[in-house]
Amino acid sequence: MTAPNVFAEPLWSAPELALATAGRLLGRFDGAIAGVSIDSRTVGRGEVYFAIKGDVHDGHSFVADALGRGAGIAVVDEAHAADLASAGALLVVKDVLAALVATGIAARARTRAKIVAITGSVGKTSTKEALRLALAEDGPTHASAASHNNHWGVPLTLSRLPKSAAYGVFEIGMNHPDEIRPLVKMVRPHVAVVTNVEPVHLAQFDSVEQIADAKAEIFEGLERGGHAVINRDNAHYERLKAAAIAAGAATWSFGEHVSADARLDRVALKETSSCVAATVLGEAVTFKVGAPGRHLVQNALAVLLAARLAGADLALAALALARYAPSSGRGKRYMLATETGPLTVIDESYNANPASMRAALALLGQTPVGAAGRRIAVLGDMLELGAEAEALHAKVAEAVAAAKIDLVFAAGPLSRSLYDSLPAARRGGYGATSADLEAALLDRVRGGDAVMVKGSNGSRMGPLVAALTARFAPMPSSDETVTAG
User: Fold this and answer.
1) Burial class (CB within 10 angstroms; exposed 0-12, middle 13-18, buried 19+) of 452
2) What b/e readout covers 185-195, taking b as 16+ CB neighbours within 10 angstroms?
3) Tell me, what CATH number does 410's domain have?
4) Does the pTM exceed 0.90?
5) How many H-runs (helices) and E-runs (strands) does the chain carry?
6) 319 lies in a domain?
7) Which residues, other chains included, contact 113 with Cβ-Cβ below 8 Å and sequence gap of 6+?
8) What is the per-residue pLDDT for 7?
9) Over the chain, what is the mean pLDDT?
10) CB-based burial of residue 27 (10 Å sphere; 0-12 exposed, 13-18 middle, 19+ buried)?
11) 8 Å CB contact between 222 and 245
């Protein structure tokens, strides 16, 4: 999806792109290039369309469509140039993905923005979004759209970096070793944040220590004099710190630990927000996070520390966090009307791993319910966990009990071990797929319930959220007013 260009100036001209990519122009396009896209369905007028070859589709098949929708110019490879010459203005290159990378590198070379890169097993996107809000209070800020954090997402985000940006925020993901290293060397951040290290993507790693080492690759791309921001409460803090020092970075920490540079002093967890008192680099800060959950409070400490190290105003950054709101699939809440009263639905369907599952269940556990309401968890498989997958799913039963969840619906072959680990009173229903749960779930929920839906994206739990919001009409939310102090 194309991110809107909120900056006044155009991103590129055709000659600038040709120089950056070592490509040749075919046809004529004299207009300003307003944006960069790799999706013909959402390409905007005056944007450049890169015809990337993906795992399923080759973007060259959609060049004519992209230009027909208003794209100013398309980047294509030599093999397709002749056949597409009549479609419109083209920039012909040897390899389209390599040209996108070259465009991103050129954008990074010309900017004077302070750059922050974020990785971690859990919380990358929410931390990136909160940091975008915080930095935007201080100056024009560019950030990744959605979760554009892989081999095409990172150069795409870089290629969209406006010349006048004061700050840039980049999310960098991985599911195997040596994936972060080339990406961060494109981004060249001034500040690198590791939110945490957890047993995620274990199918590609022999140990959590190896995951920590892969996350630590982010420090290798830091600019000279750069800063590493590390979770002081994480079990792998010392390992990450050693890697950061070896890369020549100044190291800083966040968390509840007494020695953390951004230290949590007090927190009041509310239904739809959290009120926080913290000390950041010796300065007392009181602020509100505009979404609930202790894990978001932890991320907020990283945000404020990173913002301050990037040169932003700490007070303005802290005030901005009150406007943070979770997106679809990442904690967005729906208040729905049923015949027996309001129903709360929490959409956590975008992704799942053991750490985020614990956090989501804890959040459900603190969510108020009606007089006869229940806390209901609808859980799908957590993928890419390797040989320990069944055991890790079974262990989720402990988090269910700790959060005092009343009822659990489970979907998927791995979640069977979780379901079988639950006492009979907590079993709401099991299905081989999420679709198998839909009828039972819709039949069982009632007014006063709080329902949380979570699973890895591949387990397709999102349609259950859609089914709930389609069955019950929305009702006005009654967000509380909280004054931090």
Assistant:
1) buried
2) ebbbbbbbbbb
3) 3.90.190.20
4) no
5) 16, 21
6) yes
7) 142, 161, 165, 166, 167, 168
8) 61
9) 93
10) middle
11) no
Q: What pLDDT digit, counting tens, does each position of 130-174 carry?
A: 999 999 999 999 998 777 889 999 999 999 999 999 999 999 999
What is the domain range of residue 31? 14-94
pLDDT at 156: 96
The number of distinct structural domains making up the chain is 3
> Looking at the domain assignment, is residue 202 inside a domain?
yes
- Do 306 and 348 have their domain in common? no
DSSP label at residue 186:
H
Instruction: Looking at the structure, tell me whether residues 296 and 431 fall in a common domain.
Output: no
CA 73, 78, 79, 81 dihedral sign is positive
My answer on whether 308 and 352 are in the same domain is: no
- Segment 280-300, tens digit of pLDDT: 999 999 999 999 989 999 999
Last residue of a domain, which of 286, 305, 323?
A: 323
Q: Confirm if 52 and 38 have CB atoms less than 8 A apart.
A: yes
Distance of CA 34 to the CA centre of its chain: 25
Q: Are residues 121 and 255 located together in one domain of the fold?
A: yes
Whether 440 and 315 share a structural domain = no
Place of tokens 């007028």: 45
Domain stop point among 288, 304, 323: 323
Q: What is the pLDDT of residues 67-118, one digit of tens each?
A: 999 999 999 999 999 999 999 999 999 999 999 999 999 999 999 999 999 9
Residue whose structure tokens are 């300065």: 283
Residue 427 has phi, psi (to 5 degrees) of: -85, 115
Closest to 309 measured CA to CA, from 283, 344, 345: 283
Is residue 235 one of the residues assigned to a domain? Answer: yes
Among the residue ranges 192-196, 244-248, 349-353, the one predicted with the least confidence is 349-353
Q: Give the burial string for 318-328 (b: 16+ CB within 10 Å, else e).
A: bbbbbebebee
Give per-residue pLDDT as tens, 306-352.
999 999 999 999 999 999 998 888 889 999 999 999 999 999 998 89
